[in-house]
Amino acid sequence: MSYLKIKNLEKSFGNLKVLEGINLEVEEDEFICIVGPSGCGKTTLLRLIMNLEKPDKGEILIKEKSAEKSLSDLGFVFQEPALFPWRRVIENVEFPLEIKGIKKEKRREIAQRYIKIVGLEGFEKNYPFELSGGMRQRVALARVLAKNPEVLLMDEPFASVDAQTRNKLQEELAKLWQMTKKTIILVTHNVEEAVYLGDKIVVLSKRPAHIKKIYPNFLKRPRNRTSPEFVKLRREILDTIDKF
């Protein structure tokens, strides 16, 4: 049984039809990357799963329940970290645990664990403005992981950092996924990023978007970005996107 199912999903904004007939099944523990032409509706699809938008038609099921009834199982990492500037790193990571009513000592322990996992030990007392863009995104990731969601939705989380930092964060995310085995759905414009991270790469068409092709990715982890197999898969996906 698929962990997450998207059935005949459609979404319009006024007269602008964005998504049309989206059907997708995601297995538990899978890492799915979604790519496609700019403006085709990748972020809209994530927002629908997260229940930040309502579909016009179709349904989204998580463990056979509507996504609306499964919000506690979801975590969302945005393009921008959206941290609270008046809170220190440790306090930002603790925030979803405060909302749950977890006692201070326990939430501090949980937050510290995830700060260590994302490589920010020693920065617990820093404020967001004292951190680099990549470090702020790590704080945002630690905050979502502290909530312990079953499904992690990521909307171009590394788009605003430099190429070197982006590659490093991709490597850390791949290790983190292997450690936690979360189900992850990541939207990206970067096809190399999708090939490096994804078990499957879902290619959307131009708007109104439908799924043009799904590429399974059997490359061994950790993946070598310069290997002939990696380059070949990247080229195939780019060619598919360029046909639109």
* Mean of pLDDT: 92
Number of separate strands: 10
Sheet with the most strands: spatial strand order: 6-7-8-3-9-10
Task: Give the N-terminus to C-terminus distance in angstroms.
Answer: 33 Å
CATH overall fold name? Rossmann fold
CATH class: Alpha Beta
Structural class given helices, strands, pairing?
A: alpha/beta
Label the overall shape.
globular
Q: H/E element string?
A: EEEHEEEHHHEHEHEEH
Under the CATH scheme, the architecture is: 3-Layer(aba) Sandwich
Q: How much helix, percentage-wise, in residues?
A: 25-40%
Question: Can you give me a brief rundown of this structure?
Answer:
The chain has seven helices and ten strands.
List the helices and strands and how they pair.
Layout: E1 4-13, E2 16-26, E3 31-35, H1 42-49, E4 57-62, E5 65-66, E6 74-77, H2 89-99, H3 104-117, H4 133-146, E7 151-155, H5 163-180, E8 183-187, H6 191-197, E9 200-204, E10 211-216, H7 228-242
Parallel strand pairs: 3-8, 3-9, 6-7, 7-8
Antiparallel strand pairs: 1-2, 1-4, 4-5, 9-10
Helix pairs in contact: 2-3, 2-4, 3-4, 6-7
